[in-house]
């Protein structure tokens, strides 16, 4: 009997949920709870059961009747548009504002860069953080034991299957993706590769052991330094939201020839000189150059046909400049009062 009652309750609740108008709701109520309704009939039939069962089943049946009546009232309110108009609920009271998240300064800078390069027809690629020694160094014209390896000391990882992949490193820059992209997509090629990189070095306000870079590579026929400098000026101006000047100086990276350091005019002092730019009016932001013929060969392409430029920009330093952050370590400090400012 109890099971029968509980099943009946489920049946009615399902029918209420399916009702689409007040009329069918009223018909349902009469069918089950009316004077000649099915639940009423069950209650009447209780005269045939034992006193003890009568007590238990009677109590359950009454409870079910009350529950169903309440469900009918609630559904009726929905149909009559009264739902939510309960006078004990004051809709004019101010609500509780939910905490709203926002983007991290690094994400803001990265999105601006990606948008800029996508608008110029570049692909955005992702690369492995745990990289082979070959792509991180050797393919970039930095063979084993070459002194240039000292420029970017890193964390070496012991591979499980040594013979399969050779030495593994936490990548020191995003440049390994240059050769990977050439091998996968050939030329002509326009790609940018944002990502996290790792170095084994002492931290200070401008150096961290983990930071972000964005690599850029453009390969085609007749790409020159003029193309490179034009892109650098446009890119920095787009991210900073103001027209900036750049200057280039010779720089040494074994995977480019010639190699350049690109500085941008200091956004804080407009190039006049201030503590942030060490009174020079310039800030070093980017390593760049024309892709070395050996690197183009490692990518499976002919350096007699294709030339190109490549660059690597530090996103942390860019975010520091854009938002006036004076210590790079704040970017990964997970310190909410700091992050809530952006
Ligand atoms: C490189 O990593 C080269 N792969 C860049 C490159 C790409 C050159 C393509 C030529 C062609 P560099 O070590 O200078 O270069 O780093 C590039 C940028 O990363 C720097 O300008 C700086 O903005 C940032 N950076 C370098 N070291 C750190 C560090 N320890 N902490 C934070 N940012 C850093």
Spatial shape: elongated
What's the total number of strands? 10
> CATH first level of the largest domain: which class?
Alpha Beta
The CATH architecture of the largest domain can be given as: 2-Layer Sandwich
Instruction: Give the helix tally.
Output: 12
Mean pLDDT: 90
Question: How would you write the strand order of the largest sheet?
Answer: 1-5-6-10-9-8-7
Enzyme class: ligase
GO molecular function: ATP binding; magnesium ion binding; phenylalanine-tRNA ligase activity; tRNA binding
InterPro entries: aa-tRNA-synth_II, aa-tRNA-synth_II/BPL/LPL, Phe-tRNA-synth_IIc_asu, Phe-tRNA_ligase_II_N, Phe_tRNA_ligase_alpha1_bac, Phenylalanyl-tRNA_Synthase, tRNA-bd_arm
EC number: 6.1.1.20
Question: What is the structure about, briefly put?
Answer:
Helices cover 39% and strands 19% of the residues.
């Amino acid at each position: 009997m109890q099971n029968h009652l509980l099943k009946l309750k489920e049946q009615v609740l399902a029918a209420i949920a399916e009702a689409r108008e007040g009329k069918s709701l009223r018909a349902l109520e009469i069918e089950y709870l009316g004077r000649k309704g099915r639940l009423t009939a069950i209650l009447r039939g209780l005269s045939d059961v034992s006193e003890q069962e009568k007590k238990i089943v009677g109590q359950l049946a009454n409870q079910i009747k009350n529950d169903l009546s309440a469900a009918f009232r609630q559904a009726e309110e929905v149909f009559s548009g009264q739902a939510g108009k309960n006078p004990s609920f004051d809709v004019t009271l101010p609500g509780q504002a939910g905490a709203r998240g926002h983007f991290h300064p690094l994400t803001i800078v990265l999105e601006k860069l990606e948008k800029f390069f996508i608008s110029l027809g570049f692909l955005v690629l992702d690369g492995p953080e745990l990289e082979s020694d070959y792509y991180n160094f050797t393919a970039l014209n930095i063979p084993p034991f070459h002194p240039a390896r000292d420029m970017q000391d890193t964390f070496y990882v012991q591979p499980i299957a040594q013979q399969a992949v050779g030495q593994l490193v936490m990548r020191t820059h995003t440049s390994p993706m240059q050769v990977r992209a050439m091998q996968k997509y050939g030329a002509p090629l326009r790609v940018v590769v944002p990502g996290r990189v790792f170095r084994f070095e002492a931290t200070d306000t401008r150096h961290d052991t983990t930071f972000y870079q964005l690599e850029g590579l453009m390969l085609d026929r007749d790409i020159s330094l003029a193309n490179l400098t034009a892109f650098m000026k446009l890119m920095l101006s787009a991210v900073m939201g103001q027209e900036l000047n750049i200057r280039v100086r010779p720089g040494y990276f074994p995977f480019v020839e010639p190699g350049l350091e690109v500085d941008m005019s200091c956004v804080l002092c407009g190039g006049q000189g201030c503590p942030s730019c060490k009174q020079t009016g310039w800030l070093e932001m980017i390593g760049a150059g024309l892709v070395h013929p050996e690197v183009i060969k490692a990518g499976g392409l002919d350096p007699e046909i294709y030339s190109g430029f490549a660059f690597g920009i530090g996103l942390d330093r860019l975010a520091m400049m854009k938002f006036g952050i004076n210590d790079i370590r704040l970017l990964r400090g997970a310190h909410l009062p700091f992050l809530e400012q952006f």
